Amino acid sequence: MAAFDEMKGLNGHVRPGYRQLSEWLATVPRALLDDRRREAEFLFRRIGITFAVYGNAESTERLIPFDIVPRILANAEWAALSKGLEQRIRALNLYIQDVYSKREAMRAGIVPEELVFQNPVFRPEMNGQRVPHDIWVHIAGIDVVRIDPETFYVLEDNARTPSGVSYMLENREIMIRLFPELFATHRVAPVEKYPDELLATLKSVAPSTAPADPTCVLLTPGLFNSAYYEHSFLADKLGIELVEGRDLFVEGSVVYMRTTEGPKRVDVIYRRVDDDFIDPLVFRPDSALGVPGLMGAYQAGNVTLANAVGTGVADDKAVYSYMPEIIRFFLGEEPILKNVPTWRCREPDALAYVLDHLDDLVVKETHGSGGYGMLIGPKACKDEIESFRAKLKHDPSNFIAQPTLALSTAPCLVEDGIASRHVDLRPYVLQGKNGVRIVPGGLTRVALQAGSLVVNSSQGGGTKDTWVLGA
């Protein structure tokens, strides 16, 4: 099946939202585009926007390639998508709350018990635990793709520590700087208010014992983390302290931050440290990244952790396959956004089908990320397929499989000029006591290699600015 071209549509005629961009691309000199691309790369290097590549012998820091041709969504497209995203995060939150409390979904047979209790990111420490305002997922990154003009599919739910929002914000700043004349011809909805929205969300979920203006901090694993740039960027934009575990301590089940003026109570921690490392007294005892006693303060209700501990039970790729049923069960609504059809290899019939059709399917580890641990059957050689066949037979519950989707394409600047490349989209959804907030757009990731379907930066993918046009 041919991929849907977001600019040219199904019949080769330029779609309304892309009309002005198409005319501009037809007239702008190629040399100017090349100059702007080099200038963008220079700006990203000067700002220091890099990510780390673990296990790579050649380089530990890289720039994520940036494509200067924006991806455009019409206002009506975004309105429909955002409704589906809001529905999704509400259902995710209710599901996680249920896992650690009444477990009605398991008793009703909506989600198998073993899929929860045998999940390595299930946290029994959270059983029966109330979190402030009953909100577990404060920040979600919901990966979506499209295959036709009308349909968005959710590819993945990121409910733990979703990353990439700094690139969404920096991409927009770079585009405004490089192409002011192009912006002047479009009514592009702003994304610059995301830090304000995030800070308002964090403050809204502070414990009831917190003051009217609660103290928020961003907890980072430190300088050598792959997303450290983003951590420091967001702390600066939010106007809050960037802290490491050694900067915090717990006394009397209350969290304090060390400052030059003495200890200061902390009410909300936007943590970018995984569950395993946040408290060596509860989880990994060898962790130097967390805060001893933090879980005690959290369980006492004296500090809010965003996202809550244990949210990983909702972004498992096997649990993902049950999301339509989860939405119906908890909300009594039909899913607005579709799931990609998924075979759960833990089920014998599904496993048999997948083993017979490996060369046609995409196979993923249930806890994999970054484009690692996956097989794209149509692109794989015989040895790769046979290797995955052995893995599936050895541990089928660790894998799911999906059809190879013809992801939509958007115009990109490549070596040979303007060409179509496959894209996905990660919108960022915020949920607080003040409701659900979604800035228009998100991070468009692009598979810059011709024919590639892998958009992850760790696998050579790039990013581009996402323009949602005003009504």
Automatic annotation (TrEMBL):
Gene3D superfamilies attached to this UniProt entry: 3.30.1490.270, 3.40.50.11290
Q: Which InterPro entries match?
A: ATP-dep_Glu-Cys_Ligase-2, CP_ATPgrasp_2, UCP005522
Q: Pfam families from the entry?
A: CP_ATPgrasp_2
Q: Where is the Circularly permuted ATP-grasp type domain?
A: 70-447
From which domain of life does this come? Answer: Bacteria
Question: Know the name of this protein?
Answer: Circularly permuted ATP-grasp type 2 domain-containing protein
